[in-house]
Every structure is written in C-alpha cells, then in structure tokens.
Amino acid sequence: MQNTRRLRRLVLAGLMALGTYGLSATAFAADAGLHVDQVGYLTNHTKVAMVSAASGDSFKLVDVKTGKIVYEGKLTAAKYDANSAENIRRADFTNFNTPGEYKLVVGDKESYDFAIGDNVYNVPLVQNLRSYTLSRSGNPFKDEVTGLEVKQGHAQDKQAKLYFGDKLNKKGDTLDVSGGWYDAGDYGKYTTTAGLASAEILLAYEANPTHFTKGQLHFPKGVKSDGKLPDVLAEVKHELKWMQKMQRSDGSTFHKVAGAQWPGFDKSPDTDTQERFVYGTATYSTAIYGASMAIAARVFYPYDKEYAEELLKSAKAAWNYLEKTNQPVYRWDEGQENGSGPYDKKTDEEERLWLAAELFRTTGDKAYEKYLQNKQAVFTKKPGFFTWDNTLSLAQFAYLTNDKADKSLQGRVKKAFLAYADDIVKKIEKDGFASSLSASEYTWASTKNAVSQGDHLLMANQIAPNKKYVEGALDQLHYLFGRNVLNRSFMTGVGDNPPEHPHNRIHESTGAYVPGLVVGGPNAVSGGDPDQTKYLESGNIPPAKAYLDVLTSWSTNEYAIDYNSAAAYALAFFAKADSSIKPADLKLNRVFPPLNKNK
Q: How far is CA 153 from CA 193, 274, 350, 457, in A?
C-alpha cells in the first residue's frame, strides 16, 4: 500500500518538474469538488467523504491498484454549509472495511487516493514527532530522511544576554539558555508554548503508552537515543532541559529567547549569528511551565526516579513563587517584540488552576486541592478548547483523572467538562465538513483550534466513554488531512496536497522540507499578515477558504510546536506503534523546493 502511494507521488513530482511549480499538485488526479482524508480511514470507524461539485447522485470506490469498483452508494441530499459557502453532499462508505488503497469516483470526477486500514495514521504520527527533533536548537545533526543538516543551531544561546534587569539579575547578564526546540517558522524559543507542547505530548504518552517505543522516531545522526526511554520521551526531555534553564532562582521563569531582529529567510540556524537575548517574565507562563514539569515528573518516574524528583522540585518552585505573587505579572520592555512574537497574556487564573491540578494529581497533596476548592467559581465553568492563553480544560482534565479528588467538586467539574464536549459534537454534526470550527473560530491557528477540540473529545471519552466523542475527534483528523473545502492537508508532507510554501526559515534557508508540521490554516480575521489581509479585502471570502499557501502568510501558513502537539495527541490515540516503519517509508519522493532557491 505504501509503495503504491510513493509511486503516485513520484509521478506527481515529475509532472511538477515539467510544469509551473505549485500548480500541478492541485490539478493532478483529484477533482476540487471531492473531499477526502488524503491519508485514509480506519476500519470499523465512520468513513465519509464530502462532495461539493459533481454530477450524479451515486458514488463508487475504486481500488487504485486493480481499477475495479469495490463499493457503490448513494450521495445524501445537498445541504448548504455557511462556513465554506458550498452545497455539500456526503458519500458514506462506513460499511466498507477491506484494507487497501482507493479513490472516490462521482460521475467523471475522482478524488485523491486514500487508504483504508487498521493503522493508517502510523507514518503521520512518526513524521509529526520527528519534526520536533528536526526543530532542535543547539544539537548538531544530519538527517538521512529529509537531508536536513544543522551543524550548530544558535550556539550563541550559551551566552545569551538578559534584556532587562531586576532584583534577581542585572541587565546584560550572560545566561546559558541553549537547547530546546524552535517555536515556529522563526528561531524564537518561548517558555509558554514549550510548556504546553511538552505537556500535550506527555499526556498523549500517558493516555496510550504502548503506542510509543524505542527506535520509533529514527533519530538523525548526531541525536542520541536513550536506552531506557521510548524515543518520544527522550525527545521531550531535550525540551524539558531547556525549560529548566529558563527557571529563575525565585521559581519564576523567563519568557523567551530570541534575536533582536527577525532573521531573513536566507538565514539558517547555523548562519543566524545575531546576538541573542532573554526577554521578560510572566506568571501565566511560569504556571504553564510548572504544570508541564508536574506531568513530566509522574511520566518519567518509572524510568528515572531521581530525574522525576528534580522535575517535581521545579514544579513546586514555580508554585511557591506564584503563592507569593498574588497579582498577574507580564513584564514588557521596549523593543522586546522587534524580533520575536509576544505571547502576551495579562491574566493567569486558568494557568494557576492547571498547575494546582497537576501538582495534586502527581503528589496527592490536598493543599493543592484546597486551592482548587477556593477557586470553584472559575474551576467549574464550562471551558473552551485548551490553548496557550486558556488552559482551564487541561486543569479540569487533570482533576477528573485523579482518584483522590473530592467527589462532589469532581462531579461539578465533570458536568462542565462534558457539557463543552457535547457542544463540540453539536457543531461537528451541523458543519458541512464535520469540522468543529464555528465561523468565529477560523482565526489564527484555526487548524490547531479544530484538532484541540478533537483532543477535548478524546479526553472526555476517557472520563465518560462515548462513541460520538471518538468519531468527532477522528473527524478533526479528517479535516486536518484534506477533508475540507480546500482539499488541503494542513500538515507538511502528508497527503497528496500538503502546504508547499510553509512560513519556515529552515525550509527556505536549507532547502530541506520537513514533513509533519501543522500549519495555521484558514484565518478569516483581519489583522494578520499583509498577504492574508489583502486576500480578505479582495472579496467576500468564506471563513473556511481564508488560507494562502504562500511563504509570507505567517497568519495562515506558519507552524508552531503547540499546533503540532495538538495533532500528536489525536494521532497517538488512533495510531499504534509500528516497528515495521523504516526511514525509507518516511522519505518524500516529491520535491518541495524553497522559494529563495528558485530566484
């Protein structure tokens, strides 16, 4: 099955080489009106494709290898979908469960090919998690899969300068903040998203530990594996070590590390040699840091008790600092946003709740539960999807999975948590593409918004098993991998029509296209990048179509580590560890040349 797909992409690469770069990909094979998950569908789960423009009332499934019709069915009646401004019919082939490679045919139109099988998401999971390794800072490596070679990304982070001064440090102090992951398409490193992304991956491991193994990520040359740990934990440990360097002596954390100017797209991690600075501090990001350390302490405990105790000590130090600091703090100094993103939040209530809930789950200490009981008015609210500026749902999930929790308070939290899950299901049932996104949620990071809502459903399923929760979460992966009005997979290198020009300096500067990166997706809110703003002003663009696959659209086509971790949680639920995956299975036979290399 994988060989068939590789061959097809070889043909696609050849067509692209003959024509104008970027145009042939969309035109090849698939009709724009047939929308499928370009990765595939799981056996014994709902399998639905969307049809927005095709003649006839019936559909066929055709075996790609033999050309034979293997299933036929009727399309549903058309229903108008406001977010896409399209009339949508559905092709339901849930009852067909024979593993293989197929395409949907309606009249004379055909879809991209897709797989049906028990483990169709195994390769995307590995690609997603490997992208963290390929985003490492301060770790020389050479990757045989992508060809990416980094000799020493931002070695100057060993001697970064503090941008401000206070009672703990003098302005200009030299700090070692080397290591960690680059946050997004630039080279900034942020405690906020580092903490959230690490936590989500650790929670994914905690929910399905057997889905992760040693050797799973095929680490590049230069990246050391840990004989004791599954690869995913070894990878997260690289980020945790950097995060610990960001904790200050009073338990608070620095906010970010970056240069004073945005690096050009011709600057690789090796050649961006500008001086690097440590900026700001914030109570909300300190709380996120502490929560991630508390989760890590219990996950790593079976492997390394001493290290787990070190992590827990860091989490408690963050808590002790916040106990002494009653009011929210977000330090801002003139010029600190000139070369990096703000991640600015002036409140911290939800993040404090998350830290308390994780410490209570990890330690069983009732003092942390007392804090939650004193904050019941907020703690028992119906949450939204978790994100870096609102972690209430993660706080609730930690409490709901704690068998030492007060049953009365737990019951009230459960009611709120499941009420939001039911709201998500209703949105999915109403949407023409079974997306969880309402019109107002097609914002910056809309892809993450959708997949995070799917993650909430998977967490809700752990609290109160419900088939609708599982299928709703799966619908968000279908959306991610191309079952959307744009026929676009929003993960680099995955599917037949992924982003070709991600806002990513590593790709543009080195020519190495890294698969597994989740890009922001449609953003119908003005005030993004100039390209996106101009596009929205060009006409009445439906929310679900407000996306540009162009390098300079950072508000729709940039990835970030917390976008990726949202996908990792869902993929880890549905994809089982597969020891048969080899480096050759991860290689892309299609070329995505950077724009700068074409000039």
A: 19, 12, 34, 38
pLDDT tens-place string over residues 296-308:
999 999 999 999 9
Give the integer Cα–Cα distance in Å for 61 and 188.
46
DSSP string of 214-269, one letter each residue: TTTT-PPBTPPP-TTS-HHHHHHHHHHHHHHHTB-TTS-BEEEEEESSPPPTT--T
| 497/490 Cα distance (integer angstroms) | 9
DSSP secondary structure code for residue 517 in this structure: P
CATH of domain 122-480: 1.50.10.10
Distance of CA 247 to the CA centre of its chain: 25
Query: What does the domain layout of the chain look like in residue ranges?
Result: 31-120, 122-480
- Taking alpha carbons only, the member of 199, 188, 322, 326 closest to residue 255 is 188
DSSP string, 53-118: S-SSSEEEEEETTT--EEEEEEPPPPEEETTTTEEEEEEE-TT----EEEEEEETTEE---EEEES
pTM of structure? 0.95
Backbone phi and psi for residue 308, each to the nearest 5 degrees, phi listed first: -60, -40
How many other β-carbons are positioned within 10 Å of the β-carbon of residue 249? 9
pLDDT digits (tens, 9 = 90+) for 19-33: 322 323 333 447 889
Topology of 31-120 in CATH?
Immunoglobulin-like (2.60.40)
Contact 485, 33 (CB under 8 A): no
Question: What are the φ and ψ backbone dihedral angles of 221, each rounded to 5 degrees?
Answer: -65, 130
